[in-house]
Amino acid sequence: MKSRATPAPAGRSDPAGPEDGNDLLDGVDVLVTDLDGVLRTFDDDLWTRLDADLGLCPGTAMQAILGHPFLREVIRGRGTHAQWREAGAAALVADGVSPDAARDAVAQWAGTPGRVDEEVAALLRGARARGAAVFVFTNGTDRVAAEMAELGLDEFTAPAGAHLLNSADLRAAKPEVLAFSRAHGRIENALGRGVVRERVRFLDDRSDNVAAAEAFGWRATLWTR
């Protein structure tokens, strides 16, 4: 199913644009997109397969890894992806999985590449063609830059990754106000000029992040599938 933009549920919501996204760019100098769930997607069936292979109840593997509390530290730059993988494997062992099987499962998850949402990629390229600057703002880890490069998405974060707004680098994560404040500062530094908040368009698949962006002063759109 194609992605489509929908109005943000709270704050100063803007009307949803058509599927080609042209309306999203009206009056916009900077387009900021989330990464996971918007520009990059994953195979949700992976978790079902991991649970089945490990003999676990549905949702257990996802909770052990994506739901691990250490992830909060990692996306704020206080831990690494490698440490997170170790913590996830330990959580699976605590759920009754053997250490070897737990490590293999975590490696399978970590080694499964995401997919590029070509509609969003086309929207970003179209924004640049119209003169808007493009940035990627993600609650990410120390591996995000390399993962994006593997998918060819570093075209949106060049030059030298200056257009990647990674929470692990910002030391603050969405939906925290500090994350948006630091991200906006990085945008201005990258462009070498001040940027009016109302001329920034933000796309995210989480309503709390969209609401926080609007409260900060950005135009925000909830991106759904």
Q: How are the strands of the largest sheet arranged? A: 1-8-7-2-5-6
Count of strand segments = 8
Integer tally of domains: 2
Q: In the CATH hierarchy, what is the architecture of the largest domain at level 2?
A: 3-Layer(aba) Sandwich
Strand content: 5-15%
Shape: elongated
Rg for CA atoms: 18 Å
**Could you say what the CATH topology of the largest domain is called?**
Rossmann fold
Reported for the largest beta sheet, the result is: 6 strands, mixed
Give the CATH H-level superfamily of the largest domain.
HAD superfamily/HAD-like
SSE sequence, one letter per element? EEEHHHHHEHEHEHHEHE
Span between termini: 6 Å
Structural class: alpha/beta
CATH class of the largest domain, please? Alpha Beta
The average pLDDT value, as a whole number, equals 91
- Count of helical stretches: 10
Poorly predicted regions are 1-18
Approximately how much helix is present in the residues? 40-55%
InterPro entries: HAD-like_sf (IPR036412), HAD_sf (IPR023214)
Region (Disordered): 1-25
